[in-house]
Amino acid sequence: GAGVSQSPSNKVTEKGKDVELRCDPISGHTALYWYRQSLGQGLEFLIYFQGNSAPDKSGLPSDRFSAERTGGSVSTLTIQRTQQEDSAVYLCASSPIYSSGNTIYFGEGSWLTVV
Amino acid sequence: AQSVTQLGSHVSVSEGALVLLRCNYSSSVPPYLFWYVQYPNQGLQLLLKYTTGATLVKGINGFEAEFKKSETSFHLTKPSAHMSDAAEYFCAVSEAGNTPLVFGKGTRLSVIA
Predict the structure, then answer these.
(1) Do B45 and A106 touch (CB under 8 A)?
(2) Is B94 in contact with A41 (Cβ distance < 8 A)?
(3) Residues A64-95: tens digit of each pLDDT
(4) What does the CA dihedral A91, A96, A98, A99 come to, rounded to 10 degrees?
């Protein structure tokens, strides 16, 4: 696709419910990243994928958070039993390969509000 | 582990004035340094990056940044601010050896007419 696509763009959910956030990276990009942006906190790294593999899951805030990627393309970030502190913008990004000097390209984010 | 400190969560300048957004990093190995910009209700967009070579890096929209190893800094500048420059700016660092980008907390730039 032309850019990184994320859905939903906005999600309001009740505390305790599960949510799924979807990311469709730029076509041909093998590396995919999830970040969380909270007010005044900058961007917090959550997880990255190289292909379908996620070598480093240490950034996930708790075991309520999980992510998967299938077919080397679309990724889903799942938050179980949502809490109010999960309210944030979840940003997905992709790059041609996973390499430190590469530019990563961001989607517009999924705004999650837990009430 | 690498880290980034952006001095000033909010900077306000007059239209036509110099823009200076400060970024200091911490890294145990030679860093790769980035500046991203986020316009309201949009995703982050790369302004410029330093990987190797010339330490003065020019980016889009007239911005530039200089890597100063001795000062562990990568400050972003623009000679003359424009109203359209109002946005949130993020400095980021990664280390050679494949580490994910680590971002600062951002600096919101306001431009006053």
Answers:
(1) yes
(2) no
(3) 999 999 888 999 999 999 999 999 999 999 99
(4) -110
